[in-house]
Design brief:
globular, binds alpha-D-glucopyranuronic acid, single chain
């Protein structure tokens, strides 16, 4: 799988005539220079992020008179998110949607936004990630060491557990292997809920659940449905342990290579894309519930208080630095306003 990804990538880069750090550029003898920004995504073409990013590409192309276009590579075809971060640091990939859990492995201040109960709702999360007073430093913090810039975020909505057998309490999770994203916060979260957390990349989860290596996973309804996980884990239980966050990340040099005018167009079109994504998200969530239910899934509401009590100390244990405590305090304050 990994080897195929690398081969695919090399072919893509060769075909596109890629230049590290500034997209793939070409200029015909007559026209102006065109830059193709390569965007890596681990979702299917049905996922709202693919849909919103496709129109982002179209609008960017128009707004820059064809100087910048976006080529989206969905389905993890260029690699899993951890690999994509390396490729993006090296300028081979220009843009990617990356889960916050992966960024905490580069700068642990990102852990704050991955903690259980840090966000009360998608609306609260939206307010926080669009407030530069809270996010500016964090979003530029990887530019020096990794050449990565955070452009903004897409919500992952509420993440919940899904399993092969019903779950009502921590006791039902004893000894169960539950897939988590490769992050210390996620490991601690799922362990605290009573399960045996098993880190694995997104694209491997279906097969691992099917073969019995895993007893379940955790994600939003949209991923549960679009990845077809409901076929192999029927019980989707509303544990509400996290309102997750994806980031739109770019290679810093690719972004800086744009003229001021094109950067302004990029920012404007990104804002519109963000709004489009949020509208699509609510609709996609309902469609996922309907589709998975038709496919045999059971969506179960439970009293979450017993899990909530176990998760509170997890959040507290990860707030270790002044920067983390400051981001956390500002984030919680935003929930009250
Ligand atoms: C969600 C999220 C992805 C993430 C995935 C995962 O689908 O949008 O960015 O990779 O969860 O659980 O790995």
């Amino acid at each position: 799988m990994r080897r195929r990804n690398v081969l695919t990538l090399l072919t893509v880069v060769a075909l596109a005539g890629g230049t590290a750090g500034c997209g793939a550029t070409s200029s015909g003898s007559s026209g102006p220079q065109k830059t193709i920004l390569r965007l890596a995504l681990n979702q299917t073409k049905e996922h709202p992020s693919y849909v919103a990013l496709t129109s982002f590409g179209d609008r960017l192309d128009q707004a820059t008179d064809g100087r910048f276009t976006i080529d989206i590579f969905p389905n993890e075809v260029l690699g899993a998110q951890q690999e994509i971060l390396n490729l993006m640091s090296n300028g081979i990939v220009d843009l990617a949607i990356i889960s916050g859990t992966q960024l905490e492995n580069i700068n642990r201040d990102f852990q704050v936004f991955n903690l259980p109960a840090v966000f009360d709702s998608v609306a609260h999360q939206t307010k926080v990630i669009n407030d530069p007073e809270i996010t500016r430093q964090l979003f530029t913090s990887m530019e020096g060491s990794n050449r990565l810039t955070v452009i903004g975020g897409f919500t992952q909505g509420e993440r919940n557990l899904y399993t092969k057998t019903p779950v009502n309490s921590p006791a039902d999770l004893a000894g169960k292997k539950i897939r988590v994203q490769e992050s210390p916060v996620m490991l601690a979260t799922i362990d605290a809920m009573g399960a045996s957390a098993t880190p694995m990349s997104y694209g491997e989860v279906y097969t691992a659940m099917q073969s019995g290596v895993l007893d379940g996973a955790e994600n939003n309804e949209v991923s549960y449905y679009t990845q077809k996980h409901y076929e192999v884990a029927r019980y989707y239980t509303y544990t509400k342990h996290l309102v997750g966050l994806d980031y739109m990340v770019g290679n810093t040099d690719s972004l800086h290579a744009m003229s001021e005018q094109d950067q302004a167009a990029f920012d404007r079109e990104w804002t519109a894309t963000y709004q489009e994504f949020n509208d699509l998200w609510a609709k996609a969530t309902q469609e996922a519930i309907d589709g998975a239910t038709k496919g045999g899934a059971k969506f179960v509401k439970i009293d979450t208080s017993v899990f909530d009590a176990r998760l509170k100390p997890v959040a507290e244990s990860f707030l270790r630095t002044d920067v983390q405590r400051e981001i956390y305090a500002k984030t919680r304050k935003a929930a009250e306003q």
